[in-house]
Amino acid sequence: MNAEKPLAPIPFGKPMLDSSEIEAAARVLSGTTLVHGPATHEFEEQFARRVGAAEAISVSSCTAGLHLSLFVHGVGPGDRVAVPAMTHVATAHVVELCGATPVFIDVERDTGNMDAAALDAVSAGLRAVEVVHYLGLPCDMDRISAIAAKTGAFVVEDCALSLGATYGGRHTGNFGVTGNFSFYPVKHMTTIEGGMVTANDPAVAAKIRQTKAFGYDRTIAQRTRPGIYDVVALGFNYRMNEVEAAVGLAQLGKLDNFAAKRAANYAALKKALSDVDEVTVFESEKGKARSSHYCLNAILPADGHIDRDALVKHLNAAGIGTSVHYPAAVPLFTYYREKYGYRPGQFPVAEWLADQTISLPVGPHLAEGDALRIAAAVKSGVRAAKR
Question: What is the pLDDT of residues 159-180, one digit of tens each?
């Protein structure tokens, strides 16, 4: 008798690449232009149209875009920038890199997004507000924008996980001075590595384009002396290359299909987990907000009677890839804790999510039946992980 074939692992995320990306990269590599070329310009134009923004500027990463967004607005020492306590550390790091001070805001229990009431309580004197659309569900941009306007702060959107998400019918990335997207391999689409900044103010877009490339100014010199440039501002090397842009163009053509699969997988997994009393799942819609379905967070009770780490080990042993978004409230990471003196208990919702959530896969790499398999593993794992 033949032994039963083991089930294939289900990774948390997987870049969805085929011959179209390989051929696109090969076309670039067989030419002579690897940066500042037509693929990058076309990718920017198509992405801007995709999200409904006036302009899009390709960058080396979402982190680079966030840094540029603060830098070109002159954020520096003495400035205070609001940052959600539950986010990737990059959102806070770019504030530090500008020499400014992050002001951490706890998050909502039912979305993981910045708590507008908590933001309002500390809004006086803020220079900027960085919003993060947690796991792809947009923040309450009406309330946050109103609070920022009241105090004179500008808004920057961290859209790393929200490609395809909308608020009031508008795509994320259109509510602040910039939106900043990530193309890391397991995101909604990939360019291998890279990001995009969206802007609806031409002056902001122009400044970011210049600053991402050393502060070059070629416009005057090139009229009479090709290849000669001036440097009119401090800048960085935050450019995307042509190979990445070509891969991005191929991925954009698949994005509708990717998004539909994510939404279907999210709905199937959420339904399959509905009879697990110990697990809570965020809604993918709230008011005007519609999610991008980056992943599904299985949220365990705050009392800790289920061992999250044991449940993760159970899932991984069953071949289910998992992640944690994110492993600590940012102000409790060693760097921020030691610099600013933060202590456990100051950000209770963010701390609960950090300790008691497991991110489960819903990406387009899932096969038919995978949602039921993941849910079954969660159910058996919850029983085994009870303390």
Answer: 999 999 999 999 999 999 999 9
Q: Tell me the pLDDT tens digit for each residue of 234-259.
A: 999 999 999 999 999 999 999 999 99
Confidence of residue 2 (pLDDT cuts 50, 70, 90): low
Structural Rg of the chain based on CA atoms: 22
Cα 121 to Cα 118: distance, rounded to the nearest angstrom: 5
Confidence of residue 186 (pLDDT cuts 50, 70, 90): very high
- Angstrom distance (rounded) from CA 155 to CA 172: 12
Task: Answer yes or no: is pLDDT of 225 > 90.
Answer: no
- Same-domain check for residues 230 and 279: no
Q: Pick from 9, 58, 35, 22: which is nearest to 365 by CA? A: 9
CATH of residue 26's domain is: 3.40.640.10
Q: The domain that contains 259 carries what CATH number?
A: 3.90.1150.10
Select which of 5, 14, 150, 187 is catalytic.
187
Reported as a single tens digit per residue, the pLDDT across 258-290 is 999 999 999 999 999 999 999 999 999 999 999
Examine the residue annotation and report whether 313 is marked as an active-site residue of this protein.
Answer: no
% of the chain exceeding 70 in pLDDT = 97
Residues 324 and 216 in one domain: no
294 and 207 both lie in a single domain: no
- Residue 262 CA to residue 361 CA, distance in Å, equals 9
Range of the domain at 184: 19-252
Same domain, residue pair 225 and 298:
no
Q: Does residue 369 lie in a domain region? A: yes
Domain count, the chain: 2
- Regarding whether 204 and 62 lie in a shared domain, the answer is yes
Question: Which ranges in the chain belong to alpha helices (H)?
Answer: 19-29, 38-51, 62-71, 89-97, 116-121, 141-151, 202-211, 242-252, 255-272, 308-317, 334-340, 348-356, 370-384
